[in-house]
Amino acid sequence: xxxxxVIELFAGVGGFRLGLEQARGYEVVWSNQWEPSTKTQxxxxxxxxxxxxxxxxxxxxxxxxxxxxxxADLLVGxxxxxxxxxxxxxxxSKGLIGKKGVLWWSIHKILSEMKNPPKYxxxxxxxxxxxxxxxxxGRDFAIMLKSLDELGYAVEWRVINxxxxxxxxxxxxxxxxxxxxxxxxxxxxxxxxxxIWLHHNGIIAKAFPVANTSQSGSSFSIEEDLITISxxxxxxxxxxxxxxxxxxxxxxxxxxxxxAVYDGKKTVLGDILQxxxxxxxxxxxxxxxxxxTYLKGAKKEIRTSKNGFTYNYSEGGMxxxxxxxxxxxxxxxxxxxxxxxxxxxxxxxxxGLRRLxxxxxxxxxxxxDNHTHLEGITDTKRAFFMGNALVVGVVQKIAEKLYxxxxx
Length: 408
Description:
By secondary structure, the protein is of the alpha/beta class. It has two domains: 4-264 and 391-406, Vaccinia Virus protein VP39 (Rossmann fold); 269-357, no CATH class. It has helices at residues 15-23, 42-51, 104-113, 139-150, 184-191, 194-201, 203-207, 226-232, 269-272, 286-296, 358-364, 379-388, 392-406; strands at 4-9, 26-32, 56-57, 74-78, 86-89, 96-98, 120-126, 153-161, 172-180, 218-221, 245-249, 252-256, 299-304, 310-315, 346-349, 352-355. Helix 1 packs across helix 13 and helix 4 (139-150) packs antiparallel against helix 8 (226-232). The chain is globular and about 65 Å long. It starts with a strand and ends with a helix.
């Protein structure tokens, strides 16, 4: 069977591509990675070192001309979480333009300007997208759904915690797939009940089964134009109307709360630790143990802010060191470096407590060992990459089911 051609945006160090390549049946024909805040483009350097420089763009995506992007069947990317509000409307036929530099609108621009846009979309973001911003819960997601609807796509989504399906990290992310109205899948979705698609027949349901919870979801329409949605959607409400699973087709939202079903092998933190001797650089000096213990511990104390305001501060304790018989906590971008921290992982070793190595962090995201190892790239930067990355196994499983369904 012919491979599906892929455009990969916000490529980072290539997590999406790894998942697609492991799923087989996909060929990345154009990729883009640009880090606006740094002079040296470290992530792009790693990407090129692993996948080659051919058809890879290291330019600001908002300045890339759409005509320079080849046609493809699928567009993928884990785009940054930002404020997606609609800033302006143009008088000509270009439609809506969001705030400058907000990268959702770069995806929108590419899809709206391509003569033959990709028939499928596969995107990832942090799960708080479903409930942001805090003064208009769910507005950002509503803008995305409606803007894709106007471009001819139906969208299904699910918040997936990788550890609930046996993967080594408790990382919750929203994955959503778009189907263009010209595809057989779109036509199939139109014919069946949304609940059946979301619980049984859908791509995500086949990749990541869910419990047959009571089918009491909710449905509502999003009919307003994007500017009205941006200004008024869910204003004054405390909760987002979007649950962890859903489908949007022809202006109508169908959303359900689902829970994971999995009884296979579970990989835990202890399974991914390097068996060979780890450099003493990762050991926590005895003089720092007290500071680490304090930061990880429960607190109830009075603190004073910079402007002299005093307030009661409290937080719960964390397991210290991290439990080896459970999936790891979420890796964050500040995982690297020696300084004591509440959020960095700490594990026991023969020589004492230590931090995780870059290879172990790669394993928690199911990357190959030393994927980010490159001359001139520090361990701290490698940890930063993994804090930004996704769990490759999640992409692989969804990509396999998507490929099978497209070719069935």
